[in-house]
Amino acid sequence: MCRPLTDLDRHLAEAAARFGTPCYVYATDLVEERLAHLRAHLGRWFAVSFAVKSNPNPALLDWMRGRLDCLDISSGGELALAQEAGWDAERISFTGPAKRDAELRAATQAGLGELVLESLREARLADAIAGELGRVQPVLVRLAPARVPKGFGDQMAGRPSPFGVDVEEAAEILPQIAALPNLKIIGLHIYSGTQCLKPEAICENWRIFMQVFADTCAALDLRPEKLIFGAGLGIPYHPGDSALDLAAIAAEIGPELDAFAARFSATRLVLELGRYLVGPAGWFVTRVVSVKQSRGSRIAICDGGLNANLAASGNFGMVLRRNYVMHRVGGDEDGARPEERQDISGPLCTSIDKLGGGVALPRLEEGDLIAIHACGAYGPTASPLHFISHPMPAELLLTGGQMRDVTRIRGG
Ligand SMILES: Cc1ncc(COP(=O)(O)O)c(C=O)c1O
Questions:
Q1: Ligand 1: residues whose CB is within 6 Å?
Q2: pLDDT digit string (tens) for 8-22?
Q3: I need a surface site. Which of 84, 151, 226, 324 has the fewest CB within 10 A?
């Protein structure tokens, strides 16, 4: 099904041999290429902010420090990871619907660039904390639009949602936030949908953002320093998915973005995203521990399953489980391993620990390595790593052919 990539396979096999399995390999050269591609098509209008939630590995964040404009964090823990990676708090924004006193305090004290307020409750708490610390905290208000176009894998607005201020309530809530003495509204933020592979849906969503931003700024008489567009850019995960066409997006929405940027000429427009940058630059490598022939099915049972990679098992927000693209490291050995349909499961004692159903792969045997693609985002960070107490997956950074162990969470 999937041709082995010889050079890649060499690195993946090296990763498994040197650092053990299961493991993740993140290729920074590929992240660099994706960033260049993103900037080539959309950089004329937007700076880029990386959503740490998608991959908080400190070595990766460190690598990004001189290459990306800003970071978005969603917890005090992510603030600590970003700081450990050398990021200046001033270049960081902080989203999240249930921020606690201690994390607001730590972020304000650190000199956070922008606090992204998700409610009036949070605004009042943040105001009190900033007052105690003798600081005026710059804030963006997160707005939840009334509509999200069809085509997003997950949506955070357009229906009852815990995220941000519903646009219907904005006229009542935003002036109350604006009146708080220790906060300064410097802009707005929207993140309403994610994992979209349809250019026209992305454009339609950004059109909604521009309307909401323009209306809200007019109502508040706000001249924003920053407007954050939650990008929603998706990546291909499954056989048959096509990569998002950024040129098509730029061609369709470019004139409207030009007009918007001219109207907000003193404003920095920012695209906030995670998976688009790092997802396709990561592989998850797991080793076949055992093979079972069961009632007509061949099942390869591997050392890493949903415990190490929840997303690839289809249990991270996927309605219908679909196989990720994957290949056998080493391919079909010049025909010695003819392709057949096989099931791939993990080491856990639950039937949902399945990484593939009926996947066409060269016949798998004990000891083989399987590489699952598009695993650079929502990997270890989105997985129940402690369930059944198997070893933690290693994380490896591949830069210019050199591999480095950057495992964040060790033990097992
Ligand atoms: C507020 C916010 N920002 C950024 C992201 C990153 O999304 P993605 O990795 O799909 O780009 C998300 C994802 O849920 C989010 O909720």
A1: 51, 54, 72, 95, 156, 191, 194-195, 230-231, 272-276, 377
A2: 999 999 999 999 999
A3: 84
